[in-house]
């Protein structure tokens, strides 16, 4: 049986330690092609580049994989990989390992998860991996076995079209990780607080800052699982229709 | 009874004819504050600005509303409006009128809809409006009465938390619009085809292009409603959990 073709991308950029770790893991499983941003693209959500141009180039980095550095967003990388770079449709698209959590509401801001969602829109199997540690030199080793398990299980048990996985890993030593839990997206949000400063010319400017407000203590929420030492897996879809509200809305417009 | 406070934003920029039309409509209903991007932000999805700074300034444009031009993405505009500009939480956030359709899968790429979703995350009532006409000088007049009706109905019938509306208007004369239909997001996608060019220095570069592939002929899909001459309303949520796949996923990880 031929090896699966695996596309790897991320939002922290092609040289980030998190993606290099993920590449080393998938190199053990399949033929690997990396198409990732040439610069940090955190918080880019599902942005695509339509008012300017894109380019990519092949790099010569260590390992059996092929590496392509792309000028666009994570979603651009997936589109460009599929249309211009890959020899055939990949069997799996993995994104990450993100430096920082993409649990709960972060799924909608995350370039890492948006790349996985874009692959899902293309009808592909896709998983986004994130570690709850923003540091550039975070320890990605502790999650290796779990990531491998999740990838192998996904290849063996393909998801239905329209579903991708959002996997978050707590910042814990390997021996303290309690296992893997299937979860729902926790009800949480960022409470904004812009940091106001004045530039040398007297004009005000702002940095986006804030704190994370978890409003969901339910047992099956991803934030709860992470707080309890589990790796969380949320099945994510991109049909955003609020079906449960359609009847009421229909009654308003009848 | 005091007038509702209405925040207006968009992704085509604060001077786009679509947002100026929407402002003229909501000026008839409430007190209006506009916080919109100072440059086109189409296709920016749910992007936020975290690696650079933001600024805004008040403009002096015709009309009773206040206009603030912001350097960020549509989602940045909503965050900045709530934290730094509005005197109190608004009763409604409206985004658009977008120059171009945001039906079906376009909801995830659209800056217009992401601004409405961000308002929903903040627990606010929010509606995104889009016209199926990309032209800068598109005719936004034909939809005025329908937009007014939808805004008034939303103020009278608040949506549950976690739901916002995605309203799309077909490019038709007013007399040919058949009415308003509550719909689901159609199953559709863009088929990418990058346009490859060579720059004066011999390097290849690409423009993202493609064609729209509607794979959903069901009666209640937004694409069907638009094709049949109706204005489509899709209730949109941002809990992306694929609940219907959780049992199966649980059985894989037991």
TrEMBL record, chains A, B:
<keyword id="KW-0963">Cytoplasm</keyword>
<dbReference type="GO" id="GO:0008253">
    <property type="term" value="F:5'-nucleotidase activity"/>
</dbReference>
<keyword id="KW-0547">Nucleotide-binding</keyword>
<feature type="domain" description="Survival protein SurE-like phosphatase/nucleotidase">
    <location>
        <begin position="6"/>
        <end position="192"/>
    </location>
</feature>
<dbReference type="Pfam" id="PF01975">
    <property type="entry name" value="SurE"/>
</dbReference>
<keyword id="KW-0479">Metal-binding</keyword>
<protein>
    <recommendedName>
        <fullName>5'-nucleotidase SurE</fullName>
        <ecNumber>3.1.3.5</ecNumber>
    </recommendedName>
</protein>
<dbReference type="GO" id="GO:0005737">
    <property type="term" value="C:cytoplasm"/>
</dbReference>
<dbReference type="InterPro" id="IPR002828">
    <property type="entry name" value="SurE-like_Pase/nucleotidase"/>
</dbReference>
<keyword id="KW-0378">Hydrolase</keyword>
<comment type="similarity">
    <text>Belongs to the SurE nucleotidase family.</text>
</comment>
<feature type="binding site">
    <location>
        <position position="11"/>
    </location>
    <ligand>
        <name>a divalent metal cation</name>
    </ligand>
</feature>
<dbReference type="InterPro" id="IPR030048">
    <property type="entry name" value="SurE"/>
</dbReference>
<feature type="binding site">
    <location>
        <position position="42"/>
    </location>
    <ligand>
        <name>a divalent metal cation</name>
    </ligand>
</feature>
<feature type="binding site">
    <location>
        <position position="98"/>
    </location>
    <ligand>
        <name>a divalent metal cation</name>
    </ligand>
</feature>
<dbReference type="GO" id="GO:0000166">
    <property type="term" value="F:nucleotide binding"/>
</dbReference>
<dbReference type="GO" id="GO:0046872">
    <property type="term" value="F:metal ion binding"/>
</dbReference>
<dbReference type="InterPro" id="IPR036523">
    <property type="entry name" value="SurE-like_sf"/>
</dbReference>
<feature type="binding site">
    <location>
        <position position="12"/>
    </location>
    <ligand>
        <name>a divalent metal cation</name>
    </ligand>
</feature>
<comment type="function">
    <text>Nucleotidase that shows phosphatase activity on nucleoside 5'-monophosphates.</text>
</comment>
